[in-house]
Amino acid sequence: MPLISFTALKTPWRQVSWGNQADLQYVKNFQLQNDQVRHGRVLLYGPVGAGKSSFINSVSNVLRRRITSPALTNATNEEERSFTKKYETHNIKKDTGQFYPFVFNDLMGLEEGSGRGVRVEDIKLAMMGHVKEGYKFNPASPLSTSDSGYNPSPSPEDRVHVVVCLYSGNTTEINSSVLQKMKAIRETASDLGIPQLALLTKFDEACPETEKDLKNVYKSKLVKRKMGDLSSKLGIPLNFILPVKNYSEETQLNDDVDTLILSALRMMIDLGEDFIDSKL
């Protein structure tokens, strides 16, 4: 049930072309121009339950035009512990049998307190390409150079090209210890020059206007306030924060859900290509 009722703004504060197929065609036709890299790598991080795995599945749904599940998700209400344990790369297959030139890496969620959830040190190593596929995160100690999960010689496509923070709009407040971890991850990405985005998920669960009609997302005072709070606390500019509704209860695709997902995805792959062209 929605948490709070807010009156909607009369006009949207951002313009959206609802149902426009341009973003879908753009993503379908997208090709990296740098021949050293076969795919851009998008790293997703955020608190437990923010919807990282669900976002990967939602992107797959939109591009494959059906409900899919490449990333396992947890359907219980026990969101205080991370469901994802390993460092896994998720790619999305085209109708041709080939794969899209971008991949997603899902991480163990950020948890309250020390010794729980993914460690910031491991996320930094992942950004630099030093974490091998299938490495099982250990909340008690970071990955070391002597560990079998450590990649000593990462290739350009092992590196992360875009870092994306996901945060639930259905959360009342960011826990202070989790926020400090989020800030440390942002600073690390900034030091490495990696472009960053933030996605506000699950806002429809908190806002009556968007639960009733997703097209009200940029008329919602609650959504605007949540995005502004995230911007001020993390330092990510507001124009690099996007609201996204993941597929959760739906068994059929929805044009409005697709519109928000594709808008975020297009920005991700563009920023990733910019980084690859300038840094690699």
Automatic annotation (TrEMBL):
UniProt xrefs under InterPro entries: P-loop_NTPase (IPR027417)
GO BP, one annotated term: immune response
Top-level division of the source organism's lineage: Eukaryota
Gene3D superfamilies associated with the record: P-loop containing nucleotide triphosphate hydrolases
Protein name from the UniProt record: G domain-containing protein
Organism expressing this protein natively: Oreochromis niloticus (Nile tilapia)
